[in-house]
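Annex B. Sample input.
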Amino acid sequence: MEKKKIVVTLAGNPNCGKTSIFNSLTGLRRDVSNYPGATVEKVSGFFEYQDYVIEVIDLPGTYSLSAYSEDERVSRHFLIYDKPDIVVNVLDASNLERNLYLTIQLLELEVPVILAMNMSDMVMRRGFEVDYQELSKVLNSPVVPTVGDKGAGINELKKEIVRLFEKCSEACPRVRVDYGPEIFDEIQSLETLLREAEGAFSAYPSRWIAIKLLEQDPQVIRLFDPVPSRIKEKILNRLNFSREHLKAHFGEAAEVMIADRRYGFISGIIKTVRTILHQRDDISDAIDRVVLNRVLGFPIFAFIMFLIFKFTFAGAAPFIGWLSLGFERLAGFIAASFPENIFRSLIIDALINGVGSLLEFLPLIMFMFLAIAFFEDSGYMARAAFLMDKFMARFGLHGKSFLPLMISTNGCAVLGIMASRTLENSKDRLITMLITPFMICGAKLPVFAIFIAAFFPENYAAFMMFLLYFFSISVALASAWILRQFVFKGEVEHFVMELPPYRFPSIRGVFLKTWERGVVYLKKAGTVILFISVIIWAGFSFPIGAPVNERTGVEQSAIGRLGRAIEPVLKPLGLDWRAGTALVSGVAAKEVIISTFGTIYSLQDGEEESLEKHLAEDPFWDPLKAFSFLIFSLLYTPCCVSAVVFFKEAGSWRWTLFLMFGTALLAWIVSFVFYQAGLLLLF
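Annex B, continued. Sample output.
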């Protein structure tokens, strides 16, 4: 017999452990895509329980359903229109004040809700005791204590999902916030008029629509566009009267009073269900007094970033050496086993020396991801955003801009640009998207690593990467200041952020994040990079006016001639046609810079050596030229995928072209100044 299906949605605040609940429920069986019509990532998975197949959909982490940011809009739209059977609201049980605000909004949507009280093991440690049975009675919703990263309470949660689904097939209980008689009367008056709209709002609970109208929710007000003008005018006139009446009565706007009553309701709940066992100085507060100290905070942050780079290079070095030796021996074996022809060239020059040069640095990527995941899950990265808020405000950036910049540094500029959707203000968001490509993303990391290894002493590797990292931040901040002063004038909005408690990261969770990010990198290397590497090899292997097997014919090839054509533009930066060719190919994907160099040197020299050795032994290069190349690589035109995502997010060709050509011009100017100044100082 075919099993019945239940659709479950996970909703919760950021840092509530929602991902650990998702992983424990689905056993890591996940599918990642985008919500229809949005760039917000959709994560879904499945598990079977009793006679049901249960699909779990993980909504973006959000503090409310006010629908000001894209995350909030997507979450609310999904809950209303896709109508999941069950909503599992994941809460940080040790921080009910913050988490219950979203819970109240979910209950007002009249959806069946289960409260997963996650991190329940932290409650006693923080000196509290929560009566979960009483909380379930007050909210008329099932409550299940869980510890997601340890799998505690997951079986009970599965059982409760099935039980509530079967119960709500008949009638689902509802809970309503008591907003007081004055607000209640205005809600009822609006509800009565809404019923005259004859189904225009049938997808929404009428009470919820009325509350959102009083809150002046812009998305709800837009729903009136197709409503007949007579009814529309009648409802909006009543809305204006209701808002003015409430303001006259309370002296505050209706949305302020509604939020105040919600928090009052939450306060009453907490007094009912939570008992303070003993007052204690929370360990998170004690640590914060040090790491958020106005004097020590920034040096500690800089030291942690240096440690991350030190750990990355030191940990990855042996693995990089083994992979490099392995690819050299593989190339030597192929060269000795097969006659010299176009197919052997394809395998050695394009696949092994092209893609292989990139794959050698997979350990570097993995160790970087591992270190970043550790600090993310520990709670420190949220502190870093909080710490950087005031500093970034001096440059015209919102505190939330730190998150996209960090995501770009930890993985990909594409993800960083998409993460900017958490900024409500369009100016703040566009500035953030414009500077995000300056970060040293995972694609640029191998480029920096191989040039640093080739031209700088090994014990300086972490310091050089640290220097480049802060140089990238400096350029991003300076660019943001210029944009804010001359293009996007206006005050920066205030930044309010709830800091999660410190916790020792789950080893399983940290390795899962590292693995997932590494798989994305491998997929890119095995598909996009492989394809582009073969195209580049073909462009080099069929010289114009020279035999295929003549090594000097590389410069006469179609791509070689392109490199020669742009060489005069790059010569003042200390770069030659090979660097120009690599940079042009890097517009497709930054990793291709490495595979392009690998293919060029393999075709020119015909020796099965690592790219690092080729670069170090090439008399053309020196540390000054290498650093000039790294500066240009850091700042110039973002990859094509980033540009496409930027266009989708910004919705403007004008700003997309500005990003593509403006960054190239900036890269040329900065590299020119650095290289020419270096020549003056050295000679």
